[in-house]
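Journal club prep — side note

Before the paper discussion, L.F. wants everyone to see what a predicted structure for a comparable chain looks like in token form. Sequence:
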Amino acid sequence: MSRLNEHLEHIRNTVVPTRGAAQVGLDAAYIAEIEARAQPPLLARGLEQWNAGYLYEQHETLEWLWRATDEPVRDLFKGIIQSGVGGYHVLNRNRKGALGKWTGALGYLAPFDSLHPYAIDVGHLRAQLAEAREALLAEEEPDWEVQEVRVKQMSVRWVVRQAAPRVSSLLRRLDRAWEESPLSVLGNLRGVTEEEATRLPETRMRSIAYLIAHLGVGKAIVAARCAGDEALSFQDVAPPEPWRDLPHWASEIQERLRRVVGFLTEEALDEMRPLFGTTLSLERILEATIEHDIYHAGEINLLRELYRTDKT
């Protein structure tokens, strides 16, 4: 069972639904602490769902975290939940429900407005909510298509923290290997058609599509190891089958990995984690991930050119 599932089981078995926030104010020490915290797995997953438009699902995910928390920051989680549920009501054309949830969300988020707990840009989220709420209030008969577009453009974003030197170097190299260099994975995918991506070579070993799925699955596991999840395996990660969805999915996994790595400290890079039958430091795992991208980028380039040569 993955760390996330274990966390869910713990919450189901131990958390009282009516748990309230501890009576601790947002003093300077507490603010500094929550702004320095890394995003726990449930929060990271809930924000991914929120930003991908899965507004009902983010509620299901983040509610567990909200229920498990007995300190003031639980109101932040509640505000994020209600902001997403308000958007869900808009997509279902429920004006009253949307206004109610967005009004509640603005209140829950207000104490954190100028803060960045877990690196979340709360002020940006509140500004979007306030604008969307005012626009919906102004129309008794809303133009739902316009309202839906507004909701789909909303996002929960986070601020960029100054990463430690080794972490910054790894992030730059991850970006170069995946997309920033013309020789990167995505650089070699430019112009690749579905026919080229799904075609098997004569050896019938692996297609370009297979390689992209393979890279995404591997990075999902590496991201989990960086976050402390030592149980996630190949069987737990299911890439989409249509080719048109694969590059986007793999890029989302890349962003997940970048976010987790961005929260690492220099000391964490030296921690040992299990990976594919061996144990390595997180720094070495990430270096191997970069090398893995470079290796398969070359393979994609070779397959692409072989297919195009066959056509001529």
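L.F.'s comment for the group: The domain at 165-311 is CATH 1.20.120.450 (Four Helix Bundle (Hemerythrin (Met), subunit A)). Keep this in mind when we get to the figures.
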